[in-house]
Amino acid sequence: MSRFYQSIDLLVAPSIVPEAFGLSICEAMSYELTVVTTTSGAQSEIIQDGVNGFLIRPDDVDQLKETLERLLQDVPLLRTVGQNARRRIESAFTMDHLYAKLNRLYDSF
Known about the structure:
Layout: H1 2-6, E1 10-13, H2 23-30, E2 34-38, H3 43-46, E3 54-56, H4 61-73, H5 75-92, H6 95-107
């Protein structure tokens, strides 16, 4: 997967099915990729729209098209959002963060 993520400029995941957690979204973000995905499921818990990715409404093809056109025309924005995406993953979704949360949970019992 590393080679795949390194070969693309952004990840588009226009899911219409509610996602419990977007692993592929987090993986892409960890590679400084801008992610365009939907508000269907947990994606909005990972992505802050316009800051570290883009959230569109499910089934809104026009919004998807407009977002992609904007990113293809504004490469500095694409790169900045990708950098913010990596920072988001590093600040909240690493294995160290997961272990710390699990430890806090276990300690609460």
